[in-house]
Design brief:
Blueprint: E1 2-3, E2 9-10, E3 16-19, E4 25-28, E5 36-37, E6 39-44, E7 53-58, E8 65-68, E9 76-79, E10 104-107, H1 121-134, E11 139-142, H2 149-154, H3 169-173
Parallel strand pairs: 10-11
Antiparallel strand pairs: 1-2, 3-4, 5-9, 6-7, 8-9
Length: 183
């Protein structure tokens, strides 16, 4: 690990060599897709840099996917999200170019169901988008999709965060730019 002049830490984990099904060697990430990850630091307890040390654990700041299992702990766990090409979401339709002015519908995915529970991206795609389209809107502005542990305490974004409650990046991509062109 190295730290630059601005205090930004960087670590590079080299790929490993693996044999594919056809027997050829190829380089693959050393960390497997969906593995839980965290960073461990050994720091001095006082700011002067002297005395007793303590170990702290952190989720990588640029994690693409995090999970929380309240049956185990209230803490979040980082997950290395690096799906294979077959698992990645690919757009099925061309990007929509609006022919008219934007009519923007502001939506909160997690509170888009009539039931007293957290809605999912897949449900939103199936139920809310057709209603929004029928109302004449041509653009959806998704609110509160980013999640941060502190924000969850305030209940802003905590319920709809993309990295939580089983939602993965490909779930949000399922209703991306081409959603209104679906028949």
């Amino acid at each position: 690990m190295v730290v630059d002049e601005y205090g930004v830490w960087e670590v590079e984990i080299p790929h490993v060599t693996s044999k594919s099904k056809d027997g050829k060697e190829k380089k693959v990430p050393a960390i497997q897709h969906m593995s839980k990850v965290k960073v461990s630091f050994l720091i001095k307890k006082n700011q002067g840099g002297e005395g007793e040390e303590e170990r702290i654990y952190r989720i990588p700041a640029w994690s693409k996917y995090v999970v929380q299992d309240l049956n185990v702990s209230p803490l979040y766990e980082g997950v290395f999200y690096n799906p294979s090409e077959e698992e990645k979401y690919t757009m099925r339709q061309a990007r929509v170019k609006p022919e008219e002015d934007l009519r923007i519908y502001e939506a909160h995915v997690g509170i888009s169901t009539p039931e007293p529970r957290v809605g999912t991206y897949k449900e939103f795609t199936r139920t809310a988008i057709p209603r929004i389209k029928e109302l004449g809107y041509n653009t959806i502005q998704l609110m509160a999709i980013m999640e941060h542990a502190i924000v969850a305490v305030w209940n802003i974004g905590g319920l709809e965060g993309i990295g939580r409650r089983g939602a993965q990046a490909r779930d949000i991509g399922a209703f991306g730019c081409g959603a209104f062109t679906c028949e």
